[in-house]
Amino acid sequence: MADPIRAKTPEGSLRSQRPNDGRVGSLPPMSIFNRRYAVLGWLTWIGAKTVMKHKAKQAVPGTVEGTRRPNKGAIAAGLAAVGSVLWFWRRKSSSDQPPPGAES
Known about the structure:
Layout: H1 4-8, H2 14-17, H3 32-59, H4 72-96
């Protein structure tokens, strides 16, 4: 009795010419160009992630050289964050109360 998978494939296809060697979960054959491009893309992605991490560390305001005191950019960013949280919190709490004269 013929293999049902081979019976459904055309005679000239790779699947009908290459027998399954019994490996479970084996990948279909891949050309050398596809494999080379996959490795090249993977290496490019690894390099790009390294560059992005380095640039992100440089962009974050840090400390003054030789001391533990934060620099002016870090202080300004912290004050802006605290101010915006307080402003949002104040607006949110004032919108919970009905305006004066709007009684039901």
